[in-house]
Structures are given as structure tokens and as C-alpha cells.
Amino acid sequence: MRTPTSDVTTYGHLTLSDHPDQDAYVLIQDGEALMHGSTEDLARARRLAGSTGALLWFRNSGKSYVVRDAATLQRIRVLYAPVSQLGEAQGALGERQGQLGEQQAALGMQMAAVAARDAAAAVAQARASLARDNAAARPATSTTQQANAARQRSTQQQIEALATQQQALAAQQADLATQQAAASARADGQARHAMREAIRNGLASPVTR
Question: Per DSSP, what are the bridge partners of residue 10?
């Protein structure tokens, strides 16, 4: 998503309130912010990064650190690559579901239009019958109604087929969501391990703001 005051695209876990006593992290790189924290954490990291900088800001046991080591930043990005890929797959499925929904709506409108024409034809036939006994008109009207009914059945079958596809896509979405949740939890744990390593290896500089 994009934050209201920036063109930086953020993804990860975003909370809407600041909890300075909780561990958090924000990786800013290439116009994107990968994060697990609050909007205040994101703003803090952006201030430290400046307009073009790349960094990893994180809070561990109540203390804040900044890492600018390129290898560490890339390591964190790689850890989250599967999460991003699963998100893209979900987005593609969502687009396909939207397309199917549009097709279903169009078919529904077709059915409604045919039904309206049938109703109008029935009214016209009734009026003609009251006015005169037109034996020739009735078979023609009946034939038209039969053709319309056949089209309605065909359209209904198409709608049902689309609904089946929608159900299959929904099941795939649910499966991808489960996979993404697991991948995100796995990446989060590995990222936090990498941050602790950065502290031990002297790659993380303490910050007070």
C-alpha cells in the first residue's frame, strides 16, 4: 500500500498505533518499505533514511538500531521474496475473479432483458387474443418464446459454469492466503534472527530518535 504522505510502497504487517515497548522493524529500499510495526515506526525510519537512503531500522528489547550494510538489507529482502510472490499470485487470482464477476453480471443482464421481452410479448399476445382470434400469430409467438427459453437455459448454464470457476478460484485464494501467512511468519522469524546477528557483528548502530 502507499502511505498518505509518501510515494513509498509499504508491505508487511502494519499496526495503526505506536507501541515503543514492542519489537518492530522497517526496511526502506528502492522506494519500498518492508515492515512489521506501526505508522510511527515507518515515519521514524523514513526520517533516518532521508529522501534517497536505504536502511533497516529496528527495535529490539526496547532499543533502536539502524543497519545500512547492503548485504544485510538484501538478506532481509530475499527472506520476504516468497511472501511477495504469493501476494502477487493472490492479486492475479483476484483479477481473474473480477473478470468472471463481470461476465456473470453481463449474462445476468442478458437474462433479464430476454425475460422482459418475453413478458412484453405475452402482454401483446393477450391483447391480440382479446381483440381478435389470430390463429397465425399464436404459433409465431410461441416459437419466439421457445427460442428465448432455450437462450435463457443456455445463459443460465453459462452462469453456473462461471460460478463453479469462481468457487475454484476462491478455494485457491484461501490456499494461497494460508501459504502466505505461513511464509510471512517464517520470514519474520528469520528476519529477526538476522537483526540479532547484525547487533552481535557490529553492523547495527544504536539510535536515540
Answer: 33
User: Which grid coordinates belong to 90?
Assistant: 493472490
Q: In what order do the strands lie in the sheet with 63-67?
A: 9-15, 32-38, 24-29, 55-60, 63-67, 205-207
- Sign of the torsion formed by the C-alpha atoms of 42, 47, 52 and 56: negative
Residue 186 CA to residue 15 CA, distance in Å, equals 19
Where exactly are the structural domains of the chain?
9-74+191-207, 81-189
8 A C-beta contact, residue 176 and residue 86 = yes
What pTM does this model have? 0.66
Residue 21: φ, ψ to 5°: -85, -5
**Which CA distances in Å does 41 have to 22, 24, 60?**
11, 8, 13
Which residues lie closer than 8 Å to 134 by C-beta, 6 or more apart? Answer: 128
Helix (H, G, I), strand (E, B) or coil at 169: helix
DSSP class per residue in 29-83: ETTEEEEEEEHHHHHHHHHHHTTT--EEEEEETTEEEEE--HHHHHHHHHHHHHH
Maximum C-alpha span of the chain: 100
Backbone angles phi, psi at 123, to 5 degrees: -65, -45
Instruction: Give residue for cell 533516518.
Output: 48
pLDDT in tens, 131-163: 665 555 455 556 777 777 787 788 888 888 888
Query: Cα separations (Å) of 59 from 12, 35, 74, 75?
Result: 16, 12, 19, 18
